[in-house]
Amino acid sequence: MYLTWLDNNSWLIEIGGQRILLDPWLIGSLTFNNLDWLFKGNRLKDQPIPDNIDLILLSQGLEDHAHPDTLKQLDKNIPVVASVNATKVVEKLGYHQIHTLAHGETFTLNSQVEIKALPGSSLGPGVIENAYLLQELTSNFTLYYEPHGYHSPQLQQLAPIDVVVTPIINVWLPLLGSIIQGMDSTLKIVKWLQPQYLLPTAAGGDVAFEGLLVKLLKPQGSVEDFQALLDKNNLKTKLFTPKPGEKIYLPKQSNQAVQI
């Protein structure tokens, strides 16, 4: 398996001979409902749009997961697997092959990779977006992705999982509480799943953020803090923190992982 972090929540996953583009924001700025004064993310440089994509995988319908400007640039013939809310975005953009997954449903990509939707982030009363479990069918190599740190207890029944991609720091908003759960939430999932590898997501690398909301956000924790938690709990999971655009090879044995 190869993973390339494309910044923020965007990843290129190469598994089972398939190239899966996950939650892509690769070009242009990021806003929510065009409210620049509230929140705006600006890339220091656009990420090249990967070629030969076999599938677009969308966990949420929010702009930082289903980024309209990026999705407009991609080939509308590429199949899409999406949450219910993300489906609404790609339908409006004219995508032709959309597979909407409710929690517990699966989709098999070219007989090589099974994708299972699991309960993910809570975005308000009655709105729970998707986490995903990807499994390479020939080797049973598995990857779990949840971008806000909301982990369903049913995951314990799926352990062990080889690769976990999820936040490792907390982000708080006054009055609203935690909007991204890392630290203790991620420590719990590592104990549950005993992954070989852990890669953080949701943190901006080559991105500058501005707006009123940015001034209110309160991040807590760091890579060093989380590594200390792993060490304190005698957990052998390998923590990788790639730079934007960096490709990492993840074999079955964690002591052989290579940053490319």
Instruction: Count up the domains.
Output: 1
Let me know the largest β-sheet.
8 strands, mixed
Annotation field: number of helices: 5
**Strand order of the main beta sheet, please?**
7-6-5-3-2-1-19-20
| CATH superfamily placement | Ribonuclease Z/Hydroxyacylglutathione hydrolase-like
Per CATH, the architecture is 4-Layer Sandwich
Overall mean pLDDT score? 90
In total, the number of strands is 20
Secondary structural class: alpha/beta
- Overall outline: globular
Give the H and E element order.
Answer: EEEEEHEHEEEEEEEEHEEHEHEEE
Helix content: 10-25%
CATH topology: Metallo-beta-lactamase, Chain A
- Low-confidence blocks of residues: none
Q: What's the structural blueprint in terms of helices and strands?
A:
Layout: E1 2-5, E2 11-15, E3 18-22, E4 40-43, E5 55-58, H1 68-73, E6 80-82, H2 84-93, E7 98-100, E8 106-109, E9 113-122, E10 128-136, E11 142-145, E12 163-165, E13 170-173, E14 177-180, H3 184-193, E15 197-199, E16 207-210, H4 212-216, E17 218-220, H5 223-232, E18 238-239, E19 247-249, E20 258-259
Parallel strand pairs: 3-5, 5-6, 6-7, 11-12, 12-15, 15-18
Antiparallel strand pairs: 1-2, 1-19, 2-3, 4-16, 8-9, 9-10, 10-11, 13-14, 13-17, 19-20
